[in-house]
Amino acid sequence: MRFLPFLLVVLLTTFSAAATSLTFRVDMRGRAISPAGVHVAGNFQAAAGFGGDWNPATTALTDADADSVFELTVQVPAGTYAYKYVNGTTWPESEIVPGLCGYADGGGNVNRQVGVANGGVQVLPAYRFGECVARGGYAAGGATAPAWWHDAVFYEVFVRSFYDQSGDGRGDFDGLTAKLDYLNDGDPATTTDLGVTALWLMPMMESPSYHGYDVTNYKATEPDYGSMVQFETFLAAAHQRGIKVIIDLVLNHSSNQHPWFVGSASSTAHPYRDWYRWSATNPGQPGPWGQTVWHPRGGQFYYGVFYDGMPDLNWDSPGLRAAMWSATRFWLNKGVDGYRLDAVKYLDEDGAVTENTPGTLNLLAELRDSVRAVNPSAFLVGEAWSATNAVQPYVAEERLDACFEFDVSSAILTTLNSTNPEPLRVQLAEAAATYPFGTMATFLTNHDQNRVFDQLGQSMPKMKQAADLLLTLPGVPFLYYGEEVGMSGTGPDPDKRRPMQWTAGPRAGFTTGNPWSGLNPNYATYNVATMAADPASLLNHYRRLIGVRNGSVALRQGYYLPLTPGTLSVPPAAPKLVAFGRAVGQELVLVVANVGTTAVAAPTVALATSELAAGDYAVTNLLTGQAAGTVSVDSVGGFGAWHPGALGALAANQTWVLRLVPQSVGLAEGARPGGPSLALYPNPAVGRVRLMLAGVGESATATARVYDLTGRLLLTQPLAGAASELDVTGLAAGAYVVRVAGEGVSVARRLVVGR
Predict the structure, then answer these.
(1) What is the pLDDT of residues 669-681, one digit of tens each?
(2) Chain segment 200-249, per-residue pLDDT in tens
(3) What is the dihedral of CA 621, 624, 626, 631, to 10 degrees?
(4) Tell me, what's the pLDDT at 10?
């Protein structure tokens, strides 16, 4: 049996006269629900008026909104309570609570635990049944509810190069604090800050190198950057402005100067010996790109995929595992909001297979649970530098919250340099069909690549359009520091990580001392102070774009819809347009980008299908505020070739960002608050998907139709009542629109089919 009530050690509680409203919530998505229902049991039941404690039959949870999150609200005195969820009414049906987020009772059982304050309202996170992960239910359409990072714009910072407050020529935590108002001053009404809402700090733990990816102490700050107190001061100041902060976490390797490795290398009997991978002879196998990976030391050989100064950690060692999980909890307890995970695809090698192994995926799931046990809302974004189809497993089953999408980055640059829209069109379609909701992290370039300004031939029109695309595409966008002012950098890594260009004055305003690195030659022209004074500058373009994204739910959270571009010219031209939509519910934004070298006189776009209700929509260009005409949406949420006549021609490297607002929309019931609604789950789906209609009677009849994003009708199925199932085994992996209509019901939701 999973649980024996008589073995429980009931936790002591301290009661007060003032009762607290406590809501239990459990996420049951993807599970078959017991006919007896879902229950919660614990030592709170007697205090809440349900008779004896630990009786799973008396406290049933309900799912009134059909979102797969079952809930129960009780009134209890203040105290500490143990509990667990039960899929049924008997103890063999209870969840097995992971040790990482549970508490052993001393009798061989692990329970969840909650501390309840005196009075007020307390709502528990919707933990998944038997897991540490919490997600908070479903958004409309059955997708995972948006988390804070789905609304974020990230800014990647190399602390050493951002701003030097001390005058020693090296950037520091105090410098970061001093420049926070440049990034986001905390006042949404101002327009003089960049507007980013989250920061990624490149390695800031103790390290002997300039770059910091060879850590010598996972629980200490880099002395060049400042003390732990100075880091904590920066973190508090960022949070005061509403800025989230994630930090680089190097899981694959340490420095060869780390005490762990020094001890490991000292003796085969040392306690740290198995924290690294050793061989008595040279195995001779090359690395993933043909490099030497077995390095000599003391007559033996150790494994290091990057170079001999960064030996790989051995994640098969329980001691190493425990030490690293302790380090992750350390920084979370300091208040960081998550981690960027370096080189995750190399974590667990399997013989000759050195990347993307099942062991790596399992390890990341364990990391997720360890992190969620400390901070359920912490963000995990991975660097798995592989093709899209190889990256997808890292975000499947919520192992990580997001991964960097290198193929989209490459496609943006290729399209802009070639003036050929096809590379980006093709890659966007693949990414949209591959990644679950909100799991793609987008960027132009990062610290390992030649800077985007150089890759685009130092063309300012292309730079602005690259920003247009980055900040309107689906996914979580990341900017690399200095990108917004046109910083250059090619060749060796230090040249891509040069000091930030603040002014045209001495040392680019970065320091009063001697900069740790040479400055970019272009800093006198491309710097914050100069560009801030020019309304047409790249910096101010970024400010406007980020402001537009921050103000649009569709641009932050909307799914991708392909648009068909064209022209009104006779004969029809083949315009060099990238066009797509971003939709969430009844909000739609159209993005039309001319990547060619000449203007398109009368560009058109067509939309096959969407969730939009039929009717007329007024269109506005969000970048300029200019009215762009009206478009009529048909019964399947689409429209034919449409030209925003009021906007005229679309210039070379110009982008329109067009928002649709209903005018005289003949809203169906499902489009009105309180009317019928449709939820799909699981979503993404494999095999079968449940359709749950809310706001309709059990006798209601309707028909479900499934369209692909080109508007082709693929499936038709009659429905009866509020719940039914749809067989999608015959559909290819990708995105679809499910429309349900009949007896006063007309609703639509996006469905993703996986394989």
Answers:
(1) 334 444 577 888 6
(2) 999 999 999 999 999 999 999 999 999 999 999 999 999 999 999 999 99
(3) 0
(4) 31
pTM of model > 0.85: no
pLDDT by residue (tens digit) across 148-196?
999 999 999 999 999 999 999 999 999 999 999 999 999 988 999 999 9
- Tell me the fold of 555-662: Immunoglobulin-like (2.60.40)
CATH number of this structure's domain 150-252+318-550: 3.20.20.80
Thinking of the domain 670-753, which architecture would CATH place it in?
Answer: Sandwich (2.60)
CA distance 428 to 579: 11
Is 383 annotated in the active site? yes
Distance CA 383, CA 515 (A): 29
Task: Give span(s): CATH 3.20.20.80, the chain.
Answer: 150-252+318-550
- Contacts by 191-196, CB closer than 8 A, 24 or more apart: 191/543, 191/547, 192/532, 192/543, 193/543, 194/155, 194/484, 194/539, 194/542, 194/543, 194/546, 195/153, 195/543, 195/546, 195/547, 195/550, 196/153, 196/154, 196/155, 196/243, 196/479, 196/546
What CATH architecture applies to the domain 259-303? Alpha-Beta Complex (3.90)
Alpha helix locations (H) across 154-209?
159-162, 173-178, 180-183
| C-alpha R_g of the chain | 28
- Per the annotation, the verdict on 743 as an active-site residue is no
Q: Report how far apart, in Å, the C-alpha atoms of 69 and of each of 59, 63, 105, 665 are.
A: 15, 6, 27, 33
Specify the domain boundaries for CATH 2.60.40.1180 within the chain: 555-662
Under 8 Å between Cβ of 423 and 407: no
Pairing mode, strands 278-279 and 300-303:
antiparallel
pLDDT of res. 149: 96
Q: Which is the catalytic residue, given 383, 407, 468, 587?
A: 383
Q: Which of 63, 185, 342, 669 is catalytic?
A: 342
Which homologous superfamily is 5-137 in? Answer: Immunoglobulins (2.60.40.10)
Mean pLDDT in residue range 34-59: 93
